Amino acid sequence: MKKTGQLVFTRNQESIASTVRRIPCTSCGRNHRGQCLVGAGVCYQCGQPGHFKKDCPQLNMTVQRDQGVGSQTIEQSRVSVVPTEGTSGARQKGVVGRPRQQGKVYAMTQQEVEDAPDVITGTILICNVPADVLFDPGATHSFVSSIFLTKLNRMLEPLSEGLAIYTPVGDVLLVNEVLRNCEVLVEGISLLVDLLPLELQRLDVILGMDFLFAHYASMDCHRKEVVFRKPGFAEVVFRGMRKAVSRSLISVLKAEKLLRKGCTAFLAHIVVVQREKLKPEDVPVVKEFLDVFPDDLSGLPPDREIEFTIELLPGTAPISQAPYRMAPSELKELKMQLQELVDKGYIRPSVSPWGAPVLFVKKKDGTLRLCIDYRQLNKVTIRNKYPLPRIDDLFDQLRGATLFSKIDLRSGYHQLKVRESDIAKTAFRTRYGHYEFRVMPFGLTNAPAVFMDLMNRIFHRYLDQFVIVFIDDILVYSVDRESHEEHLRIVLQTLREKQLYAKFSKCEFWLEQVVFLGHVVSAKGVSVDPQKVEAVVNWERPISATEVRSFLGLAGYYRRFIEDFSRLALPLTALTRKNVKFEWSDKCEQSFQELKKRLVTAPILALPVTGKDYVIYCDASRLGLGCVLMQDGNVIAYASRQLKEHECNYPTHDLELAAVVLALKIWRHYLFGEKCHIFTDHKSLKYIFDQKELNLRQRRWLELIKDYDCTIEYHPGKANVVADALSRKSRLPKSALCGIRVALLNELRGSKAVVTTEDSGSLLAQFQVRSSLVTEIVRRQSEDSNLQKKFEKSKKGLEVEFELRTDGAIVKQGRLCVPNISELKNAILEEAHSSAYAMHPGSTKMYRTLKKTYWWSGMKQEIAEYVDRCLICQQVKPVRQRPGGFLNPLPVPEWKWEHITMDFLFGLPRTSSGHDGIWVIVDRLTKTTRFIPIKMTSTLDQLARLYVDKIVSQYGVPVSIVSDRDPRFTSKFWPSLQKAMGTGLKFSTSFHPQTDGQSERTIQTLEDMLRACVLQLKGSWDTHLPLMEFAYNNNYQSSIGMAPYEALYGRPCRTPVCWNEVGERKLVGPELVQITTNNIKLIRENLRKAQDRQKSYADKRRRNLEFQVGDQVFLKLSPWRGVIRFGRKGKLSPRYIGPYQITERVGPAAYRLELPIELARIHDVFHVSMLRKYIPDPSHVLQDQPVELKEDLSYVEEPVQILDRKEQVLRNKTIPLIKVLWRHHGAEEATWEPEYQMKKSYPILFS
């Protein structure tokens, strides 16, 4: 008996039914569809037998809906699961069927849903696709629209029993399929539901009672909320969509007409009210010490009990560097700031032999700060080992405190003088003279330690009583208001007496809770700063196997601290396996939450120990920044954050440096004064301290880094799992944006602005309106001093090539001059090379295109270097040069059958004996060859017997065997057998068959002999194989100067052709030995000559190519195998994959690579011709792409789903075809394949 379901949409059913005109029924005279119920013996209300409509129990059922004022009672049709007589069909045609159950469907449009005050709707991710959803407790099942079904790209499954659904006008819809286990993402929690396909008007999904009941849901129609209270899980609340008042824009004329009609008008405008900043006069106690908070420092600080000193390493000579070049705008600012420093007395003219260059750092507000590049001086300075207080000791002092104040000094370093004898060492060189500092400058390595020494001496009496000092930060703490007032007054009075001044805008007073040294301090005690564990605690639930792997990478790094880690992570690990459908279950959620809890509790998260080195792991991605602070293998804190709007445009080098700066800023209280090792997977950061050419952003960050005793070291990305996982956390679920942006783009184009959109996969997007590239080039031409000089010369008639265009642009022979600004040149190069209108041309074509429009000095060279560095070009373009690696022949053997080669020839026609292959074995000295017929299915044990019978028994045990990497040779059995016999195995380099060239050439000759044999002698080829072996061994070999038989036995073989020549001559005793020995010497000499001849000829067509250990190289996909994709030649597949690091040089022309785990089955040694050197660039973002290759370097393509079926008729033969969706490819790349072929190759697809 088939089941019957019901869909009730709660309202307007009668109005919908009445709007449709019908032909009156001949039985009852009414308008309806389907079979008339008159005379059917069933209730007209519910369709059940055994009672009439007036006695129907459903008439007594009511649904109370809270309207905020009263309640409304409406009739609804409920279906009970009992058998009944009736008729049904996909569309009722009056055909009587077997007993069914009946239900009624009431349709509701989206507009009616929005207008209804008691209906709950909203947008929810269904299988990661946004859907308009209606929650309906009146529907017994959940439904999906046929239109939305196409977006899910999932296959329907057949129902075991059909489901009949009745419409309000009498239609009967028969549903035979269901979409099972669809993921409904509600507030980050995954809930599963089965969806039935149905035609819905403008709604995507309806979630009925089956879903609400299974997930313990309760609905509040007034608040438009659905609450899920599943046992064992936190309560989840979904808030439905409320009807929004649409905004409209009316004109003045339209408003005037409305006013004349008597409409009431309101004029509203929004005013942004800035909160008035707090002033020192408004703060108790502080208002008594206004002189401690000046707007600026006026002059030199007084003499203090301590001065800043610079102690140098013994034998250090003065260091002087040339000034850095500056733009005209920077020179103007330099002149101003130098005069200001001279007026304050901070600097003075110098004649010192020392001299550091100066540079500008851009502040957050856009102004420039003058900085001195003291990197060379810091290298020769003896470090000040002033001790920092233990953090746990400081917290002991804070217990019981309830009020706190934080004071930050204004330009603290400038409030301390430099010792007179050391002033000369602070000298710096500029365009406008040579100067030296009289006060402590920024950028010197010992400045923070000396300043903390000063602060501790000043507040020595009050330390551990009510004052804590950490460098230039002062924390005042007290147990009550009265004492805090007294303590604050003492501290401010001390600052006044010592003439130390604070910056009010950075101070905080009378706080009940304060964040200090990475902890939150309040009256309740000391607790961990939530920011330390926020990166892990707020980790959103993964929605794909890739995100699960990222989380497990973080958790697995600390598995030694997590008891029973394997059992806890088992549900998550199962989701990352191949061919496993991603379904987030309750067990997965429990595993995820428990692992997060373990990661932020002891013993992983520990307190730091003063005096021990710290370790920081940093990483950056296009999603965010991540870092982790460790000590002795224990985590001190985690940190991560999303990229800010402007940071999305940073090059990779700057993003990785930003992650380092993030760590140093947030963990300053831990790292200051301590040795710190920073690990990053961006290798070029190792040399940041020695780079001369830095942009303003890098300069600013370098000033901060110089305050710390830190080293930056390289750590491979695959080993940096923790920071990498934190930086690549999923921030927002992926979703498409509305089509409204298209209209906005059209409007913006009208303003002649350049509008760019970035599809980042986020729920929100922004439009960035920028000036065009040409306008930007013209505007910034003034910043290039060399270009300005050339133009000035042209005005004087010295250089006639340069002229001024009417729009103010400097041009050279009609070509726009590009200033020497890297970001502008990179923008031009990127547009001309990587854009959709360029498609990666070569350097010559690109130069000829650009030279028509632009000019800058060294343009051709820069274009060539840019194309060489292009990551895409390195992966897809072939090397247009001679093959790499000179010929390296194998050494000539000393004696017969000591060194042999072997290979298999398969794919031959199967003979009556069952043979379909030949085992080819060749002696490398005499070239004697054995052809042994075998079967493709021969076991290793059978091959071993053949080897002993045919080779070992006749020629003895060889010293070495050269072969390719056939699985028969690389299996455990074959190497074990040869090791027991004392034979060494030499395998060819991966995907370089030339290593075993002897066997390969012999097989080519054998194939020609087989073809001739089949044509001339007929019959099975294996019956003629002994004759082929005889003929081959008696043919002259130019490399040895004789036939292989003669080389082996010392005399020519007796054949019908040369019977008379050989005769019956007998050789015995010493004569035979002497002839054989002489032949061997002659053969070896001939082989050497042949090898030299072959090497000389081959090397003319090759080039020497060498790499170093540590180099990054691309791996060439083997062209002689062919890259297969979708069962066809993959002409659009990349030619190279990687890059991978070289770990070892193996021989003169082979290298061992560090391959990823997914390529573990592939041998890691490759010939140099298979490699291509990777040319790095800071803009490259090298992400591990999922690469799945077979052992022959061909792509693994696995079918995922059958999307469609059809039949094709060819020559009166019907061929069933199926449309297949392949793994790692979208639906647009699905292919039609013969069904019988797919069943044979992929039977699991049809199970």
UniProtKB/TrEMBL annotation:
Acyltransferase among keywords: no
Chain segments annotated as coiled-coil in the UniProt record: 1073-1100
Domain spans labelled Reverse transcriptase: 342-521
Domain Integrase catalytic: 887-1052
Top-level taxon of origin: Eukaryota
GO biological process annotation, one example: DNA recombination
Entry EC no(s): 2.7.7.49
CCHC-type domain residues: 43-58
Molecular-function annotations in GO: aspartic-type endopeptidase activity; DNA binding; DNA-directed DNA polymerase activity; endonuclease activity; RNA-directed DNA polymerase activity; zinc ion binding
Name this polypeptide is given: RNA-directed DNA polymerase
Organism: Cucumis melo var. makuwa (Oriental melon)
Organism classification: Eukaryota, Viridiplantae, Streptophyta, Embryophyta, Tracheophyta
